[in-house]
Give the backbone structure.
Amino acid sequence: MQDGSIQVIVVLRIGHRINRDKRITTHVALVARAFGVDKILISTKDVKIEESIRSICNRFGGDFQIETGVKPKKIIQGWKGVIVHLSMYGDKLEKSIKKIDTNDDILIIVGAEKVPFYFYEAADFNVSVGNQPHSEVAALALFLDRYTKGMWSRKKFDGKIEIIPSNKGKKVISK
Amino acid sequence: MQDGSIQVIVVLRIGHRINRDKRITTHVALVARAFGVDKILISTKDVKIEESIRSICNRFGGDFQIETGVKPKKIIQGWKGVIVHLSMYGDKLEKSIKKIDTNDDILIIVGAEKVPFYFYEAADFNVSVGNQPHSEVAALALFLDRYTKGMWSRKKFDGKIEIIPSNKGKKVISK
């Protein structure tokens, strides 16, 4: 809570390569939005990904923000809350989550491929969602699920398009 | 339990396009492996993805299997257990999970892009992990987390490479 208002959750995506990581980074951003993150910062400038995420927000609602072309070290140096780095080398999720103050603002660093050692050092918590190679998309979703105590399942987006849960077929309301 | 032995979890990835979905499908396969699935079946033949997943299994352990170039309808028609299809249009995860018999074998269908209506009909359960657009990688991870009651955090892989959880740096044992 940098200004006494409600707590802020920000994802910092580093090492994004426009062509190679296009779809994975899009999934990272959409997971961030769906699981209650306020804003994603992406180190590489990428206008296309900004447009695609804003288009989703415009149709499906919520206040999610995206900014690309940020300087990761500057963001980290200016951050007043807790910093978490998701990594398969990190400490166990269940153990780490107990130590993280959920009243504080949180910056969650999500790397693509090899992450420079600087980020391991800069993080207050290096957190693993299992110590097997899998996916930063899944790791972010699981971390946010535990950190927000499953808030994604109750979050309201109030978008122009709303999907009604259904066991068969597609029920969509367009406002 | 098709043969009286222990329960089997299989993921069926449909609609995989070799170039476009290469990395997302790799993440789906790695999440399947890390979160306790026994085997992934991929509709499109893709030797490269087979090699890359087998290389991970060889180094990091476990009995995970991959087969590509399968016929989805044939798999579904021959399946004796429960069939789940993950979709943003599906019924709520928490509600669905209570209805699924966890002693039965389970086939989990994970689509890429638009899924033909056949699969919605063929599934016993269409399940959503939130009704917002996000990622089949995240949806699979969350589904498996709930379905296996967090088994991923206790699963042993006994691989040549083992990562020791750590809050700073990288602790790796190579056997």
Q: What stands out?
A: Residues 47-60 of chain B form the longest helix (14 residues). Chain B touches chain A through 53 residues (CB under 8 Å). Residues 16 and 168 of chain B are 37 Å apart (CA to CA). Helices of chain B lie at 22-34, 47-60, 72-78, 93-99, 117-122, 136-147.
